[in-house]
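Pair request: fold both.
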Amino acid sequence: MTHTFKPTTVAIGDLVAHPANVRTNSPETYASENIANLKASIAVLGLLQPLLVQKIDGKYGLLAGGRRHAALIELVADKTVKGFTNRTKIDCRLVPDDCDVTTALSLAENITQAPMNAIDEFEAFARMMEVDGQTPETIAKTFGTTVAAVKGRLRYGLIHPDIRAAARAKSITLDTMKAFADHPSQEVQREVFEALTKEDSYLQAYTVRNALKSRGVQVSDDIGAFVRKDYEARGGGIAADLLDEHSVLEDSELVETILLEKLAAAAEETRAKMGFAWADAVIRYDYSAMADYGRVYPGPVEPDEEGQKRLDEITAVLETLEREMENEELEDEAYNDLYERVDELEAEARDLQEAYGAEDLARSGVIASWSNGQVTCHVGLVRPEDKVESSGKVTGGPSEKGTAESDEITYPASLTEDLKTERAMALGAAMTMHPEATLDLTLFKLVTDVLTSGMGVTQAIKVDARQEYRTHAKMDEIDGTSLEQAAEAHDALDLSWADDAKSPADQFALFRALDAGEKAKLVAYATAATTQSCFARDRQRDSLMFDFEVEIMPDIRAHWTPNAALFNRFKKAWLLKILGEELGLAQEAVTLASSTKKQVVEFCDKLFSEPFATLTEAQRAAVAAWCPPMMQTAGVEPVDASEAETPEDEADVAEAA
């Protein structure tokens, strides 16, 4: 049966909810944040679609249009909006009292409207600006959104018509179409589109973006931002975008020229400051191309009286800063500020204690390159024709080893104690995973201590029914693998006998009834909680635990992974040394040398949480096995990463530090 509904007008104050409305039980639909756009549209354009109502007790119940009604109520309450009161009448369609399909009407109103095609939406925004003369600001006001959001839609609506037509025909995907907006010029978009579709191959978004990069540099790119001021001063052309960050510097050659000039200036500044013989610049530092170059390094020198005084001051300040950084209540911004200050002071202290030799300065130089969004100066490079062969390598400065020895990794007492705790936790986790072996150890400990007049055979465990207290400066930040493993073991325990309501005798009877395997798990878990904090065992002085750990925990990395909390407590120079010398990542260490300590820590944290796909097998093995020397179980041979292929001499790490 077809229903016709009489047009009518109803005051906003006379509208009420209808029990048949399908959204009555979804109040979140009418929340302010969910109708903000609709409210803005009605305020500017008015109510474009009548409400569907039915008379209920002298009022008008809403069968369809609840979100529009909610927006109208907010407009009435909003004193900044004129023209809306409870007496304002709005257009409605009246459903007869005898209609028996009210719920169906409400449902049909909500589900039969097809969502707008994305391309239609983009083009509609563009037409509002091109045909109706509106601005992004007026459009944003109309739809209750931000100007940036409107400009984002407009950019897609202004893509070349041929490309939009291809997206409508599904010859390309919507994401691929959007990729063309990376360049504001429709002519450039068309040229790239035609070039990429000549062979009728499947076109992907990243292919489009890569092709557009050859047609200019976005001002938001690191290079674009770096050269833009000079580029504009020289009259370089800019393809303007609605969003400034997507505007494009069209003259790629001019961009490259300016970048090289700025790099050369940075190289010359470093050369003059440090006393090198020459300076050069390249956009990309090609490690393979630089393989024939040598390198010299600064060696240790004795600071003069004034320098020593300053060095003592720096040492005192660093100690204070490191204590401040251990404050767990420190805000991130304050912590980062301390980080940067520590980096600056460590660099100043290093400069006071090392210097290049005069002969090395006379034959070495600086090459500046663009790396990770900033200028990086590679110092101490020796051209092939200037290399001095000595035992097959270029020697450097007052000390042949340069700064390698001065950057030797040491472990402060506070860190050492915390690492002991973490090692004990890992050993405890291993014990819970090897209950039979741990049961034997516990019984052996108990029996031998009694039968040998209390002469303990090991200091690893105590059988006195008291859990070992473990202190740690940052327990909340350590890797949680061992804790999770121990918790999993606890959840698997049969504790049916441990009923506080029962007497100890009854509990003991139930305990005795457990099978041997369950008893072993219980004893192993209890023993794990008594393991004392200590480092690697000495085979002679503690042969029992040495062999036991080799059996149950051949690799501590199965229970513990180095993370940012650990790396935060290392000096930047130590981290670079570990990356370059112990993990075989010399190139990465050199690149990171110009980064802040925070960035180096973030790199190490990512490296260990999920080793990069680009690592060689030797590097991957080194990352998988690395831990502080005293943490490693004696059962694993240390991985030698020196065979990992690296493009630079190992000593680069010393220079990077």
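--- second member of the pair ---
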Amino acid sequence: MRECRRSLPRGRFDRVSAFNDIRDYVAIPRVLSLRLSPDGSKLISTVQSLNPDGKSYGTALWAVPLDGEPYRLTRSAKGESAAVFTASGDVLFTSARPDPTVKDAGEEVPALWLLPRAGGEARQVATRPGGIGGVRTAGDVVVFVSDVLDGEESAEEEKRKARKEAGISAILHEGYPVRYWDHDLGPGRPRLFAARLGADRLEDVRDLTPDAGDALREGGFELTPDGATVITTWRVYLPKGEWRTELVAIDVATGERRVLLADEAHDFTGPLAISPDGTKLACARDRITGLDVSARSELWIADLATGEGRAYLPDLFPSDVDWAPDSSAVYVAADFQGRRPVFRVPLDGEPARLTEDDASYLGLNPSPDGRWVYALRSAVNLAPAPARIDAATGEIADLPSPAPRPEVPGTLTEVTATADDGTPIRGWLALPEGASAANPAPFVLFIHGGPLGSWNDWQWRWQSWILAQHGYAVLMPDPCMSTGYGQEMIDRGWGNWGPRTQADLDAIVDAALARDDIDSERVAAMGGSFGGYMANWLAGHTDRYKAIVTHASLWNLDQFSGTTDAAMYWQREFGLPGGERYSLLSPHNALDRITTPMLVIHGDKDYRVPIGEALRLWWDLRRTEVDAKFLYFPDENHWILKPGNIIAWYETVLAFLGQHVLGQEWKRPDSVA
């Protein structure tokens, strides 16, 4: 076992303590994004904060000058997002705020607004009956995505009004899928529109993809620097509910479309970035999986004229990418050994790691002069905030942030172990203040979701430091199928979820429990999504844990695989329903061995892991008389997002752990009384 007690450098901003009361925690503002202005003088960020009613979150745009303090740019009840700069430095953003220049504007859907660089009030520049989503701009060209009902575009508004007045919510599907994560698909379908910036509003608005159908579902797009071409993902639907994703190039002037990147064995997806000279595209190439073909993602750089390209960083899953201003290299953020560093990848030459700290980076923004890369910097113990990276040396400087960073209540330690097959397993251990040999801390194993993922970043939803504040040591390991450890780490667990992952978890839990500052008798396990699957698996395959918390978890794999929002993806790994892997790997088959008390948590609007998994698990636990509780959220999805529900989540988890791990008397939390 190895310890690493390096502290991440602190920035030039005040810190706040917000873990004593979960109500204080949910009120912390959160920095979500970062964009650099064309002249490189300032950044703009979307910040999420608690609304005045305390029942919901809202968003606003903040400016982060490179030579001053952050200041707020927008304010409205509906919030603002999707901010991009125009060539002249104005800011385009989307918001469902009402237009003050229009009386009785009708139903509010996200419209496109422009905030002048010189200051003054934002004005609405475009609206669509189905709202406006993502936006890109180059020169005076603007491309945006909007939801459109089938049929004549001129009748769009009337058709939506007629459906509403008739009380029709039904959606007739003739293909797959029908849902995605937390929302229903249809009846409208996304299309791309092109326009030009006018004096007051967008002009010459044109539908670039009238024949798109469902091809633009859950996709991404970028605009070439000259505004002449849109590069977008394009979903190709195949027999038996399958699909693959290609990249196509669309001429903005004519709407003519050509396939740029397509491969029967791969999907081409985001992140997307077009070189400043307009000649090349960087994207992700994802291998289409199968029973014996594991997931693999690599950075792919292709020529925009010919489509010819090749792979870079083949063992790392790219999370974000942007180009150096001279188009000679790309900057890539990718998971690596429990961090997410920035790599510089030259077109001709060897990739090099640019950031050497323990942090994770997203929102890459190289400066126009090539000297700096601006990004959001975070870590398991560090909330996201803007930072500046020296492009030559990798030196890092934190910038003033629109939101204060909370001070974590403890220390972060790196733990390593060796699995039974000789593979190194590592993870982060959050230790509460005061943990020592004389005062060993109770222990919680926290298993990440995915299964492709890594504990390498700050978590607003799965916050281990709240547990640390209440005295628990929290282990966040990266077992098999974790990203950032090479392809072999993913291959080890492919099609062998439960047994292989448990062996990895056992090894690193053994190493953590050998510490004299951890109480090896008072231990619990918890996880969400795939982590919830593993929590269920552990419940039926070991009795070492005093309590298990399972959130949004997979219980009956055969049932799950046909009701999730992307059944085809899971069928590739597990085979046709009823196959051998379902019976070997489904946690429900070990129900008769479960004796550990369990807390089941699920949201009814979860379409990735449908509520049927929790309902079946809860009934199975009741009929076999396992000591269990069910925390049910009728209005939440895969994640618990409403402030009041977040409080209920943590209070219930802490009360459950307190009862079974600490030996406290059960007290129903006030938030769910």
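Observation on the second member. The chain is about 15% helix and 35% strand.
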